[in-house]
Structure formats: C-alpha cells, structure tokens
Give the backbone structure.
Amino acid sequence: MAAYAEVNYTADFHCEKNNQQHRTDEITTERLIIRRGQTFQISVHVNKDECIIDHNNILFTAETGPKPSGVFQTKGMFQLRSIDQRRWSGAVVSSTGTTLVLIAFPPPNAKIGRYTLSLLNPVGCQILKYRLGEFILLFNPWCREDEVFLDSEEQRQEYVLSEDGIIYIGSCRQINIRSWYFGQFEENIVDICLMMLDKSIKCQKNPTKDYMHRNDPVYISRVVTAMINSADDKGVLTGKWSEPYTGGVYPWSWNGSVAILHQWYKGGCQQPVRYGQCWVFAAVACTVLRCLGIPSRVVTNYNSAHDTNCNLIIEEEIDHYGRMLGEHVWNFHVWVESWMARNDLQPGYSGWQALDPTPQEKSEGIYCCGPAPVNAIKDGAVEIKYDVPFVFAEVNGDVVTWQRCRDGRRVKRSVESQRVGKYISTKGCGSNDREDITINYKHPEGAPKERAIFAEAQLRNQLEPVQEEKFDVHMKIDNSVNYGSDIDAFVNISNRSFESRVCHLHFNAQILKYTGQPVKQVMALSVDDVVVKSNGVTTVPIKVPFREFGNYLENHQLIKLIALAADARTNDNALAVEDVTVVKPSVIINILGDVILRRELTAEIIFHNPLSEPLFDCVFTIEGIGLIDGMRKIRMPEIKANQSTRNVCQFIPSKAGLRKLMVDFDCNRIKDVKGFKNITVPFF
C-alpha cells in the first residue's frame, strides 16, 4: 500500500521544451501539457544529504480521475526499463545519483485529461509515494496509433492549430462569410474544456465510468456536443431564434468562442451563456474539440432540412394566396466535422464525422448529434450510429409543398428532390477560400446512384405523384440585392396548352429567419386577368421597394418571394419560390505602414452609408487577439445620407504570426456589419 511521504523529491517538467515538442506551447509554457503517444522528458532531484535515486528500484504512477484504477486504465504504473508503445512506460536518459533525467511515454490510447505524476520508492515493507506534480494529456493527431491521427501536416495546422476561421452564412444564392476567432490556445481555455467534461451528465452520474471512456474520441465528441447547449444540463449556451434577446447577447454579436467560454466558466459552469444560434454552437464546439486535440472544422449546409418525423420528407404549407405557413427548410445550418477512427463500426466509416451541438432532436435521450460518419451519410447507411438518418435528411430530404385551399382541402403542389443540401462549405485548408465538400455528403443530384441510395434508406414514404401542371411559373431576380436597393422580380408564366389562359397572379414577399420561418409579410400583390397565349410566355415585372422591407429585415437579411398563378377557368395552379439575400454594406479595413511586432500600427476603417437618410447611434467595435487588448469602440452620433466615414485606430501587435483584426458596425438601422483584415506579424 502506497502512502504519500514528506516530499524529498523535486521535479522539473521542462515545460517549455516539452510543450514545444508536443505543439502545446501556444497554450502555455508555465505548466506541462502533452499529447498521448509521444515521449516527454522530466528531471527528478533529491537532496544529497538524504539519499540517492536508485532508478532500478523506483516506480512512477500517472493517475487521472476521482478513483484512479489500473483496472479502468485511469492509472498507469511503470518502471524505467524501456519505452513500450502499448502502455505507460519510461526510460533513463541520465543519472548522477541525486538527479535523474528520464523520458516517459503515455500510450496512444491513454485517457485524456488532468494527471498527477508520482514517484514510488520501496523502503523496507513500505512503498513511499512522492507527488511530483500535475500535467494535462491531450489527443495527438501527429501520432499514427492515436485514433485522431491525421496524415497531413497542412490539415493538422488548419484543423488543430489554427485559432482563426471563417463561417459561411447567407443563402445558396448569396454565400456570405463571417470571421470567427476559435482561440483554443487562449488562457484557461484548456481548463474550461476539461471542466466541461466533468460537468457533463455522464460524469455527474458515474464519474468512474465516464473517465474510463475518456480515451475514445467518439465518446468525448458526443459529450462535447451535448455540453455546448444547455437543453438538458447546465451547458455552455442557451439557444434563441427570435426577439427579444433581453438578458443576453444577440447571437450575431459574438466574434469568437473565448468570451463565451470565459463567461460560462466565471458563472461557476452553472449559468448558460445567452444567446447562441447554430453557427455559434458549432464554432464553440470546434474550439473545444481542437483544444482537446481532435481535428475539427466548421461546416455549413445550405437549404438544410429538419426532418421532424424521421421519414426523410420535409413538408411545407402555403395558403390560397401563396403565403408560407409555419416553418420551412433552413436557408443554412452549421455543424462541425471531426476527424477520427471509428473502431466501433465496420471498416469504411473512419474519417470525417458530422457533429451538431445545436439542440434540434434528442439522441439517446440527450440533445446532441453525432458523430455520424460522412461516408455513411453519403452511402445512405442509416443503420450506422450515431444519428445518420437525421443528417442524411438534412442534405438529401425531399421537400413537398402543400396548399391549404379556402375550403380546407390540402392539395400537393410540388415535390422537390434536388432542393436540399446545397453548397456544403468549409474554410479551405491553409487559405481563406471556400471549399465545397458537397460531394463528400451526397452523389450528384438526380444521378441514378443518388436516387438509389435515397430509396435504399427505406425511410421514405410512398408519395403520390404530382399532377403535371399545364402551365409553369418561374421567377427571375438578381442573386442578391444591395442594402438600400429595391428588388426587381420578373414573373414568367408559361402556357403549354393549345388554348389561351387568363390567370390570377398572387405575389408575396415575406421576411425570413435563417431557419426559414416567416417573420413578417412586407408585400402582397394580386394581378388579375393576366393573359397567356397558347404555347406562350407572359412576363409580369414586379418591384419590391426597399422602403417596404428595409425596416423589418432580420439579421441575416433574407426575403422569400412567392408567386402563385391560378387559371381563372380551370383553377389549375403553378408555384414559384425564390429566396433573396440583401447584402449588407462593407466595412473596409486598410493597414497603414509596415507591420512590426511591438511597434504601433494604424488601421484605417472606412464605411459608406448607402441610404438616402442618415444613420444614427453608430458604433464601430474593434478587436483582435494578439493585436488589441480587449475591445476598442469608436462612436459616431451620425453618418449622413450617402456619405462615407473614415476612422483610424492605433494598436501595438503583441503576438507574432497570422492575426485577424475584426470590426463590427452597428447603428439604428442596421446591425452586425462585419469586416476583417488578416495581418501577418513577423517574428523579428
């Protein structure tokens, strides 16, 4: 039985050297943070007057969790013989009797987390235990035997070490970007991530069992996705998708994960941070996973379906005027992909796994989603865990539109098999370019393979065929509309019959949330007696003035245009739907002068008011980790109509490397106008 003795040994963990070798020195060099499957060096010293270190007789223990146990592999014991790649082991580097230099090896399947390293010295019938200190052990994407091994240095740099990122938002017609600072190596973030694991439901219910599974990235990633939202527990973020946002922060005001995680931590990990939406949930999850050593990236799916009844069918409903009722396909949805082996599954499903911390549906009784193998999603292997059917529907579901008639009947108007799962996007590796990864999730739309896989999923309802309409409606609009400009739509009604038609045209414009839910109707127009000649096309131009919708735009600036044409004689209908993204004005950032570490630098910030009226209560918020300490605010009472403003901000870069200066602009008429500038700060 080992007992702690009065400390006679001191240890030097060589934190700076070890952390550099383990690529954790960006976190700190003041304490030891290492990765499993890779040796680290320590020195142990004992006072001359007391004894010498007999390295042939002593043992070392590395322990984690509330009740360390060799049975549960939360306790490793080793002598200094040689390095064994399968278990905790160690070897002597040098020994002078009073100072011992050794290397220790955590196996590539060791539990991650906080460890205590101790020295065991047999003395007579006793084993005296000397506590040498603590260290943190993380996953190791550089170790081939680790389940998160990623065989590309460029990808490891991007998906593990990069603290900056880009998140794609908007719509498939207008893909927009926003900058995000993950900050996984910022102060205390690693401690917050480990605390998150301890606060999870699984750990609270059975700590011993939880720690026993902390070697498994599948298990850890699932715990993280559950803890990022607060739906079941006291997780990090509370989601909110509508006004008011009192008592918290507008979701689109966040520029990074660090402030969110620090706020949760300062609240004793008991008070969820308000508020988040999908891209915030995903970005914070990406921070935590990268910090723990799991390669991760943020992914955006445009026209993302939410299958609430597990039949791969998304049903939309319009009224007799063509107005959208209820929820709808999300214009975009953001989740995370993490790279890991899936040794719990048959071969072929390792690699990128979809994880979604946004609370939508429960998985095994908890609001989390994944890891779902991307290969399984593409193959339609809906029997594979975890949550493959849900993600499969997000990128492959069929959209059925029903019209509710005046007499209460529901008439099927369209079935769209190629609308969902567009332009699935992530930041390019090593660049700011968008990488389209749609092919990873699905075969080309309409191809026999894609349709066959959909059928093989065996979750699809048998849909009644839609009667072929004798005329069609199509809308032509610009892909995007600048803020302050009108929308010009052209509704084309095509008649494929041998008789002329007289049609009623109902046109609606509705403000949308990015989830596709209608917020407000801003225009309704009916045009009677539209004549369409036999085998002809009639075009009806419609203008939606900015004054009608400008004051009601939600933050993501989305408008749905719906045109419904009805034959006055036969009552045949044709429907056309288009989503319009209103593009916000730009914040332009120019860097004046040469960039030199720890020397004052000036940024020029330019903004143009595109409206024919002034903007009031204008605030520029400027931040950048390694560039500016905290936040700077520039306030302006007014920016006159159709005028530009120029401001300057001085700052002193404190960290070398690639940094990002971010500017947020808010005023009485428009909020969350983002601008960013990448700045490379030389080391010398």
Notes: Residues 2-138 form a domain with the Immunoglobulin-like fold (CATH 2.60.40.10). The radius of gyration is 30 Å.
